[in-house]
Description:
The complex is a heterodimer. Chain A is built from ten helices and two strands. Chain A has helices spanning 2-5, 19-43, 59-87, 102-116, 131-155, 162-165, 170-173, 177-209, 213-219, 226-236; strands at 11-15, 221-225. Chain A has a two-stranded antiparallel sheet. In chain A, helix 2 packs antiparallel against helix 3 (59-87). The longest helix of chain A is centred in the C-terminal third of the chain and has 33 residues, at 177-209. By secondary structure, chain B is an alpha/beta fold. Chain B has three domains: 4-231, NADH:ubiquinone oxidoreductase-like, 20kDa subunit (Rossmann fold), CATH 3.40.50.700; 236-295, Cytochrome-c3 Hydrogenase, Chain A, domain 2; 332-372, no CATH class. In chain B, 42% of the residues lie in helices and 8% in strands. Chain B is built from 15 helices and nine strands. Chain B has helices spanning 12-19, 23-37, 42-53, 69-75, 80-89, 103-116, 145-154, 163-168, 203-216, 229-232, 243-247, 258-262, 280-283, 329-354, 356-372, and strands spanning 59-63, 92-94, 122-126, 129-130, 139-140, 143-144, 158-162, 181-182, 193-196. In chain B, strands 2-1-3-7-9 form a five-stranded parallel β-sheet, sandwiched between helices. Chain B has a two-stranded antiparallel sheet with strand order 4-8. The longest helix of chain B is centred in the last third of the chain and has 26 residues, at 329-354. Mean pLDDT of chain B is 84; it is low at 1-6.
Amino acid sequence: MNAISHPHKNLRRVFVWELPVRYYHWLNALCILTLIGTGFIIGDPPAILTGREAYQNYWFGTTRFIHFLAAYVFLFNFAFRIYWGFVGNQFASWRNFIPTNKKFFSDMWMVMKTDIFMTKREEEKSIGHNRLAGAIYFLTFIAFGIQCLTGFGLYAAMSDWWLPNLFTWVAPLFGGDFMLRQIHHWAMWFFILFTVIHVYLVFYHDYVEGRGELSSMAGGWKFIEEEVFEENKKEEK
Amino acid sequence: MTTETLTKRPTYYEELRGKGYSRRDFMKYCTMMAAFMGLQQSGIAQIADAMKKTPRIPVIWLHFQECTCCSESFIRSSHPITADIVLDQISLDYTETLMAASGHQAEEAMQKTMKDHYGEYVLCVEGSVPMAGDGEYCCIGGRSAKQILEETAAGAKAILCWGSCACNGCVQAAKPNPTQATPIHKIIKGKPIVKVPGCPPIGEVMAGTLMHIITFGTLPELDGIGRPKAFYSKRIHDSCYRRPFYDAGMFVETFDDENAKKGYCLYKVGCKGPSTYNACGIMKWNAGVSYPIQSGHGCFGCTEEKFWDNGPIYARMPEAGGFGIEATADKIGMVALGVTAAGIAAHAVATNLRKKEIVDNLIEEGKESEKEL
């Protein structure tokens, strides 16, 4: 157990998350929370008693407006992140998310053993996303895609703009708006469950690794043990 | 409906004048149809012109697995000329419900039309076709619906699918669909097909679609799933007179509450207007008298595919199959969330047991550094 035999570790500051990645992350988080909140209201509006006439109220319209606004931001933000996956640094690259070799899978299994089943007590070796996280993020990208397709597919009928009208083909594919609505609603639960697990695991990693996982998405830095740093350097070469 | 008149084929206008309609009536009718089809003003003259010049087109109207509500709707479309011109005057050479002939005579009339006007006649189909049991669930004159459809479709200029049965199978195609009721477009390939879904479709929509084909000789502009855009491009929701209540968040909670009496939005009691494409809100029914939402009942989405299987009529979220009667996506989601929370709690406890040494080490290291200061 390396970790135990070296009580004093030299840490190296590594710039992991670039500014655009951090902006993307927090904007995405804000959008997702907004979309979930407004989405619940739209799916099952609360019964609000009012003595006023319909023309004096517009809260449901406003809720929908916020949902659509957040959806546009979410879409553009998502598109930007895909772009950044090709131009960003090594930790932002698409290679972190899509398995391209066998080692990706064996590393994934290693993370499973270390962090989920905890049958191994070895130290974390990755610097950016660990392989399991990367693969899960790839699933979230697919979920993003599903929500964009179904959401804008539903929205297309309400808009004359060319952008949402790019999605008119989606409804016929699923046999109409009704199915789109259901998929859109079901997929939302993936986001809720993901968010809960994601936040927990960030705390977990910060706690057991002590490398500033939690603050890395604010400043962009992670503090990596010297020997892990050297090992990663060797692997790169 | 006699076959002799087919040989000469007078124009629509001649037929109408012969029936006793004045030119004024005729122009009124053309104006109305232009409005239904969503044409601009010059369209009126186009329709009038086409009806004067075009010899009437033979129509064969088949009935398979259906309830005839489409025919009922059609003969009640608001202008008398519609019924007259299409059912009486436009050689409706074969339709089980309305033709005078019966038995072998009727079958002969159909065969004759098919032969004499091969490649010219319009085929209207009401009802779905059962494919199970070699088609034995729907037989007419000793032949299965599938055989009849394939024969008549071969020489048709275009096929009009009336109602949800012909467009998506409707109730008989709902789970478990014992007869394998199949919509027309899945059986006939390579023919122009227009879908006019609804249970039934609005009479004026049927008339407008048919009139477009017979007057202009072309198909109307269609949407992604083959419905005429003029009638099916807007959601019921977008033309609903109760829409302001929706935007204001004023909803009927139960059918017997005060809100229902005040005519609030029916969204929460399961109205499918927001996911249904039709012209009900604009054209309404029975010559513009009313439509379901106006009568206080939510739309149940009869123009949409699989509307019988798409969950309850009086609730927004369908139950999730296999998870019990009361299980909706949200209820299952809540359970999943609870399981996740329990999993996280277990994992947190396990972390403090299994990773104790590592964590203790970190703490030790930190404390030592603190002491050195």
